[in-house]
Every structure is written in structure tokens, then in C-alpha cells.
Amino acid sequence: xxxxxxxxxxxxxxxxxxxxxxxxxxxxxxxxxxxxxxxxxxxxxxxxxxxxxxxxxxxxxxxxxxxxxxxxxxxxxxxxxxxxxxxxxxxxxxxxxxxxxxxxxxxxxxxxxxxxxxxxxxxxxxxxxxxxxxxxxxxxxxxxxxxxxxxxxxxxxxxxxxxxxxxxxxxxxxxxxxxxxxxxxxxxxxxxxxxxxxxxxxxxxxxxxxxxxxxxxxxxxxxxxxxxxxxxxxxxxxxxxxxxxxxxxxxxxxxxxxxxxxxxx
Length: 265
Fold this sequence. Notes:
Order of helices and strands: EHEHEHEHEHEEHEHHHHH
Mean pLDDT: 95
Strand order of the largest sheet: 3-2-1-4-5-6-7-8
Radius of gyration: 22 Å
Number of strands: 8
Shape: elongated
Helix content: 55-70%
Distance between the termini: 37 Å
Number of helices: 11
Structural class: alpha/beta
Oligomer: single chain
């Protein structure tokens, strides 16, 4: 099976890289086409994937077509994709904001379409992604997408109506987390650490804490309780965060993302 990427921006490059360095795919079976051919040629040189020099070549050689162009470019490329689409080809779209109904209107009701939303951490192969699909998609095709995006992190199937909340919790939250890490590091600088050392400590602590939440059977607040010794130092910091509405502020940030998303529709 061959996997063709139409558009090779940052997100597509991250996915292609993950597939190439993983063990589930043959590098030469990963194909890319971009208007600027040198972008694909660079990936070919680094990872051994295949450069295509036209949409026609990509569509002819691929079993899975990944639509990875900017959303505003989709209206330009979809007519060509529809014209060249072969029977049984699977369409996977990572174009933000473009729903399956839009893709079906432009490609045909019978086409097998899966919509995927990764997040920025795909660049370090730690994306949190979600996907949804139309009624034509088979379980085997779902497994193909899970394998592809499993190479760059985790992926979960959700209903398309929940994509907006996934955007807020899964895609906007890295920005909130980056801010939290920087705030921890700046506090470390205040008390005598260099910024580089403080950032390494803060980031690795957040990474380890996330792993604890994922792998422990305990509720996050149960883990908080484990760190807080009676009359100790950590509980002082926890109480200060609570006094300053830490948790409700995070909820308000997520709600602000949701409200903005709804205002754009």
C-alpha cells in the first residue's frame, strides 16, 4: 500500500517523518507532492521517501491520499483530486476547519473520507490526534489511519460534532502548557537557577507528570495528594494556586477558545 501526501508543510512533514522512522511502513511507499518540489526532495534525501512531480503522478501511484494543503487551497486542488480519484482510494484530510460534508460535496458521496486533526506536538512525534469518518469507511481503513498517526503520537476516534472541543483541549492546550512551563522556569530564575537549567527542569517535570497521569490508575488529584505531605512545602503552593483560581482560569481559557471557534462559523 502506498500513501500519498498532497502538500508537504510542517504537519505533513512531521507525519511523513514519523512513518519513515517507525517500523510499520516502508519509506519508499510514502509519496509526497508539493508545488515547491524541493521540499519533498529534501525529505526524500533525508528519509528515502518518494518525490512526485505532479498531482497526476501522486494520485496514480497512491492508495491513500492525504490532503495536507492549507484550507484555503483546498478549493483549488479538490477538482483535480476528484477528476483523478480512483475506485477504492481512501481520502484522509488534515485540513483544519473543513468538515466531511464539505469534502463529500466536492469529491462525491461515495468516496471514503477520514478527517484527522493532529496537534503541533506532531513535530516531536508526540501529537494528540482525533479522527472521524463518513459512513463509507471500513474498519480496515480506520486501522490504516490509526497506524499512520500512531507513528506521531496517540489518536482517538470521536464524533465530528466534538471536533471543536478537541481543538480547545487537544490543540490549543499546548500553548497553555508552554506558558505554564515558562512560568515555572521564570520562577526558578527568580530563585537562582539559570533559564536554560530551569526550563529543562520544568519541561521534564511536566513530561513526567503527564506520563504519571496516563499510566497511573489514580485520579490526578489523588496524585496531587501523594506529593503534598501534611504540613509540608508543596501544599503551600497548591493552596496558593487554588487561592488564585488556577483551575477555573484554565476552564475559562478552554471556554474562550470554544466561544471564538463558534463565532467563526
